[in-house]
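[stage:ingest] chain + small molecule (3-methyl-2-oxobutanoic acid)
[stage:ingest] validated
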Amino acid sequence: MRKINIFDTTLRDGEQSAGVNLNFSEKLEIAKQLERLNVDIIEAGFPAASKGDFSSVQAIAQTIKNCSVTGLARSVKSDIDAAWEALKDGVEPRLHVFIATSPIHRDYKLKLSKEQVIETAVETVKYAAERFPVVQWSAEDACRTELPYLAQIVEAVIQAGAKVVNIPDTVGYITPKEYGDIFTYLRENVPSIDGVSLSAHCHDDLGMAIANSLSAIEHGATQVEGAINGIGERAGNAALEEFAVALYTRKDYYKAETRLVLNEISRTSSLVSKLTGMIVPANKAVVGRNAFAHESGIHQDGVLKEKTTYEIISPDLVGFQSNSMVLGKHSGRHAFKTRLQELGFTIPDEEIKHLFTVFKDMADRKKEMTDEDLVAIVLEERLSTEQRFYDLTSIQVQYGTNQVPTATVTLTGFHNKIIQEAAPGSGSIEALYNTLERCLQAPVKLLDFRIQSVGKGRDALAQVYVKLRYQETETSGRGLAQDVLEASAKAYLNAINRVIYLNGKAKAEPVAQTQ
Ligand code: KIV
Ligand code: ZN
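[stage:predict] done
[stage:export] tokens:
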């Protein structure tokens, strides 16, 4: 079996998904889960992009011990310096430096000649290799680059010190056969190719990211890059869980394996979905709610007689368990803490005290508290705490079929100021959001609103995601509560609090662009 390295870019390319805005604690929590999943490399962010990105990459590099942590840099020395500062304390500091190589990018974006692009790439790889033990170099838009030129620049960066060469399909344009042919071409035309690891990085614009990644490993790639749940720019990146399970299920054909702990997939997918607000479609391969549901009578009959008639992946393989009741309102703090530890959370006692109060409050109203509920409480309470500038004190909404819905809201604002307002709307949520906007005394544009139940049953918790624009900043927020209106109000305030936090931190900070 050949070993394929998994390079996870959920926190960098994945976080570039429209509307996704993870905070420091959320990024750290995802990185810890990626470590449990046992990916080989975590791309934690783009340190030169902002102070926020820098500190989260640094914290992840200092915390993660079983994976290599990397950060992205453009081909400029200041980006490499920032990345070094952020990554130097990691177990194996690794730099991911890129430059665009295709004629479209060279002529229109970079305005550099072929020779100038090679010169810049070589100079920056040399500079990086003086600091980092491992330098990965990427040819942005490699798949629309002239092959002889791609081979020439790849040879030059290997000579300059690159240890991993990545061939991204930046715009999701290539087909599996063509992508495989690029790897074959490079292996046949780059003299020093044997000394490096070749990596595949595919976007899903034409729905071919997984097929392309698999084709790359058939043609010599030893590393595959992607994001959990396939999140990322536009149509997203290759979904790592799909790639890993395809390789495992068809190892007879691919004769290759990853070191992923496959039964951590479900938990990782759910964590990423909850924190990014990017809901996993029910029919999504490997992690969708229906991925293991057999609906037709013929299928059910077959599965009851012999599972493998219609099931090529077992739900246990990827960690799907039936969500049994684990705790209730009579459970004690010790049992609560132990279960959270079993779910992978290490939480200091002072925080457990607060979380336990929230748990008890919910358990009073909801008979069965499942693992999913516990995870939702921890994520909600723990990962949003540093950003509460406005807090919800109470809401009251009046609704009747022949009445104008009206909401009354009380908030605690800056300096513990109590703010109270009321407003009508054409529906309950609109009345609530009109009232909250009145409390803030500034325009807020709601761009997206989504509601999902946590688990099953009539008393399931409500999880709401919103995307909004406030103070000229677009961001997302999430809220959890037993009641949909309360969850809606919390999600809205969570987004507002994030904007205030981001704008407060972003003052005088240059934001670099990757694309
Ligand atoms: O898609 C892409 O080209 C990238 C590079 C920065 C590697 O994400
Ligand atoms: Zn990408």
